[in-house]
TrEMBL record:
Tll0287-like domain segment(s): 46-187
Domain of life: Bacteria
Family matches, as InterPro entries: Tll0287-like_dom
One Pfam family it belongs to: Tll0287-like
Annotated organism of origin: Gramella jeungdoensis
Protein name: DUF3365 domain-containing protein
Length: 189
């Protein structure tokens, strides 16, 4: 009888040790995969962006982002069989809307930055059984040209170039180290 109780306890404990429906092993695998995909996406975007900035400054790089950021991300996404979104609570492009979960995660990351805590990627399964990876997008010095504080780290001219294309832009005012948003990757398999 005692043994049976212990066995049941053990089974229950094992079940609950699975994190959000993931086994520890799966969690590790998907975290690695998500990190790899986020890095590949960042690299694909920033390589192109830097080349455009060098060739023609913001006047060339901004329209390029508008036309090409989506297709560049889609290419990485189809290679890995995932959906890739760069979500934010301060969006420039109105093609996307943050989900409630993304907003929650962004707020948690902001709190962690404020408390100097480490920001870790998140892996979870939602109610419809989709697997998600989230990781912070942090503002770097070279992002400020187009996302910085107008008249301080970002020129009024660049702001007006951006406002022409994105009249409702609210993705400015950032400082280095701020949370710009999240990589939100959904695995398709
Ligand atoms: C040349 C100007 C420029 C630079 C430099 C730049 N961005 Fe952007 N960023 C844009 C534009 C334009 C968009 C809107 C793209 C679109 O229409 O899909 C954008 C969109 C984004 C988005 C998607 C969410 C949104 O608001 O639409 C994120 C996240 C982002 N940028 C982060 C960064 C980070 C991080 C850096 C630095 C590593 C950076 N950006 C550098 C111009 C720039």
């Amino acid at each position: 009888m005692m043994l049976k109780k212990i066995t049941i306890l053990f089974v229950v404990a094992t079940l609950f040790s699975c994190n959000n429906g993931f086994s520890e092993k799966e969690k590790e695998e998907y975290t690695l995969k998500g990190k790899e995909i986020a890095q590949a996406s960042f690299k694909a975007l920033s390589t192109e962006l830097m080349a455009q900035m060098k060739a023609g400054g913001p006047a060339q790089a901004v329209p390029f982002c508008k036309e090409q950021a989506g297709p560049i991300l889609n290419e990485v996404a189809s290679k890995y069989n995932v959906t890739i979104v760069r979500s934010s609570d301060q969006l420039r492009s109105c093609k996307i809307e943050p989900t409630e979960r993304e907003l929650d995660i962004i707020n948690n990351y902001k709190n962690s930055v404020a408390k100097n805590k480490e920001l870790k990627p998140i892996i979870e399964i939602d109610a419809t059984n989709n697997k998600h990876f989230y990781a912070p997008i942090i503002v770097k010095a070279n992002c400020l040209v187009c996302h910085g504080k107008v008249n301080e780290t970002m020129s009024v001219k660049t702001d007006s170039i951006i406002k022409l294309t994105y009249p409702f832009d609210i993705a400015t005012g950032y400082s280095e180290g701020d949370v710009r948003g999240v990589w939100s990757i959904t695995f398709n398999e």
